[in-house]
Predict the structure.
Amino acid sequence: MASDPGSDTVLWSDEQTRFVLQLRIEEELKGNVKNKVLHETARKTIADKFYDTYGVRHPWIKFRNKFNSCKKQYGAMKRLTHNRTGLGYHPDGSIDMSDDWWEQRCKEWPGARKYKDKPVANADLMKQIFSGVHESGAEGWSAQQGENELDNMEVENDDAASEARQTNPPARHTNPEPDAPSSSNGPRVSNAPRASTVPKPSRKRRAEQAAYVMRSSLQSRDDILSHKNHLIESHPDLSCSQLKAMSVLHSLSSIRMWSPLYKAAYKHLREAATNRQTFLSYEDDENKIIYLEEETGESRYA
DNA sequence: AGAGATATACATATGGACGG
DNA sequence: CCGTCCATATGTATATCTCT
């Protein structure tokens, strides 16, 4: 039952959709998404930034609904592209193939026609969010995260997971925590500190202490996340455009992580907003890479 | 009529609380 | 410590409404 949708309908433009998808990716890069669950800070940030940009404040359910519909569209994209090779794509990630190819797809699945007539825009961002492969999560974490969120991040890509283990610096725990048990993914992993050797006070007393510590931890965690976001967003060298630029840089498959070109590109993009804007202005990956090679003097093959 | 946006119901996953 | 319960959030399917 739609409750009076007429007065409350959000008409999403491709631009607005892209904006919120980028915001969600940024929050993931900042480590504010845990097991696909957006932290309250992330939701607030997305809603606030959308309000700042478009002057409209939506309740979170609107964004959630939009993400749902995006995932539906992405699912259709996957259905069209699954196990197919030689596919061409538009810069926004939508399918760029011949009419013959589309006719074949429509024969297999009549539902494909609407995606031929109206390509799924922003499919590139949808892939990053919904594919379950966090191409740059480890780096995003290591650069910006001060907590142990990575342990909980969903990393379905084995390579990415092993890379994360190899490249992550030792976690600087905000709250002292005992070492994780060997079964780190067990059904019961409590954040409540478990004193191992101290004499046991009463259950009630322990519960009170644990509750106090947890409240304090949660409060400090929220404060830290909020403060961290504020710093990230206000600091000129860590502006959102840099996050976007880094996200795009990580998506360039021709540039190996930590290769000379990657390092030089990272430095170049960090230096100035105009560098990032110029980089992002190129619509296709090849021109982005050529731009970085020109600006840095490094080759992708080095 | 069909597409898009939204609400709702149900299933599922996760993590904390609680009691034995 | 462990099993169970509960709260919360997501995913999916479906229905309704508006607009083109």
Confidence is low (pLDDT under 50) at residues 1-8, 132-208, 235-240 of chain A. The longest helix of chain A spans residues 203-234.
